[in-house]
Amino acid sequence: MIYITGSSGYIGSRLINKINEVIHTGNPGNLTGVTIHPVITCDLKCGLDVLSYEPKSKIDVIYHLAAQAGIPESVEDPINDARQNILGTLRAIKLANEHNAKLIFTASAASLNPESPYGLSKKTAEEYIKMLCNDYVILRLSSIYGKKPVGVVDNFIRGDKCVIYGDGSAIRDFVHVDDIIEALMMANGWPKGTYDCGSGVGTRVIDLAEATGKEIIFEPERRGEIHESILENTTPNWNPKIDVINYIKQSV
Q1: Alpha carbon of 89 to those of 2, 103, 207: distances in Å?
Q2: Which of the residues 31, 58, 155, 185 has the least number of beta carbons within 10 Å of its own beta carbon?
Q3: What is the mean pLDDT of residues 66-91?
Q4: What pLDDT is stored for residue 34 in this prediction?
């Protein structure tokens, strides 16, 4: 079985859809050599806490996606951030070792040079996995977009105006959620290790806004935001396909 924490979230729900699609169609696409199992889910939104939920079936793979993912929220409530991102990961490690399962963990580019409690908690989670987990794949993710409830790219697409916090010179590496789902599926077959799951291409926030053709408004920079974050692609056989500027121009 595949155990997915954070299963109702932005990435988790899409990952489940992709797994079910492969199971139902029998078409693995480029996932040759990756074993696909039925899914067990866990999410606070469904009343299931990763810290206390005990899966009833034998687990083969754990996708630990449950997290507190907001930088401003981590500054406002670092205790909750640590509970979800550190303690939740320790629980996932314990289950992985007990079931002799592979743990696939969604880390963050923010963990490389932490400037917020969020970045620090994700880095700490990584270190616990490396120290304690028998079999794992850590995937450091860039800024993700694509019909996302919150996030600069999708906020710019949805809004009447583009609100930029700071002067717009901040540089990010943006990877579409469909590309990330593909990487997560492929990670099931990767050797134990830590992989940067980025495009290696940085895009200024102001360039995103200008691609929409909308009015741009500047607000004060928010505490804890990283000015430049670009991730290389160090995965064995995955490559992102969707370009963020083209995506914006086709979506507005």
Answers
A1: 16, 10, 36
A2: 58
A3: 93
A4: 53
Measured CA to CA, the distance from residue 55 to residue 158 in angstroms comes to 39
- Taking the C-alpha atoms of residue 205 and residue 169, their distance in angstroms, rounded to an integer, is 6
Which among 112, 168, 175 is positioned nearest to 142, based on CA atoms? 175
Q: 116: Cβ–Cβ under 8 A, 6 or more apart, which residues? A: 71, 74, 75, 110, 223, 224, 225
Please report how many Cα atoms fall inside a 13 Å half-sphere around the Cα of residue 54, on the Cβ side. Answer: 2
- The per-residue DSSP string of 164-186 comes to EESSS--EE-EEEHHHHHHHHHH
Segment 148-178, tens digit of pLDDT: 988 999 999 999 999 999 999 999 999 999 9
What letters, b where the CB count within 10 A reaches 16 and e where it falls short, cover 78-93? beebbebbbebbbbbb
Side by side, which strands form the sheet with 171-172? 203-204, 171-172, 228-229
Residue pair 91/119 in contact (Cβ under 8 Å)? The answer is no
Q: Specify the length of the chain in residues.
A: 252
In the chain, where are the structural domains located? 2-145+175-199+232-240
pLDDT band at 26 (very low <50, low <70, confident <90, very high): low
Q: Residue 223's Cα: distance from chain center in Å? A: 21
Check whether domain 2-145+175-199+232-240 has CATH 3.30.450.20, yes or no? no
